[in-house]
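Appendix B. Raw example, untouched.
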Amino acid sequence: MVVFGLAAADSVPGAYGVYVPASSSVERTVRSESPYNVDGEEKWSFKGEGGTAIDQLRYQRGALIRSKSDSKVYSGAKPDFHRIYKVEQAADVVRSAASNVDRVSHIAVKASGSQLSGVFDGSEQVVGVVAIPWYSRQVFLPGS
């Protein structure tokens, strides 16, 4: 269920009716000394009215897992509205507490603002990180 999101001003309030305007910046860097030693770094910055979320991550890349999935995503503002997502992607699990995987060398997550402070109050813990170097998504409305 989507209950809040940050999006470009021309995409607000979005199909789910819960997005607020924000500017965004994403930077990805991949460094390789050999095919078996690949490091990645991602810097994300989203700045919205009254709140900012920043995610910075450095990790050593591993084997990619290709997957397909279908899901229904509902709106928190309009519970009768949903979309169907069909996704194909490659994923690299770089941190998983459940699987005892940790190739993350640095991570920083900060959030502020009235919509985010209740979720990010300083007591949260990152237990999983998945890098997704490629992603293909088809979006459908029910009955289409």
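End of appendix B.
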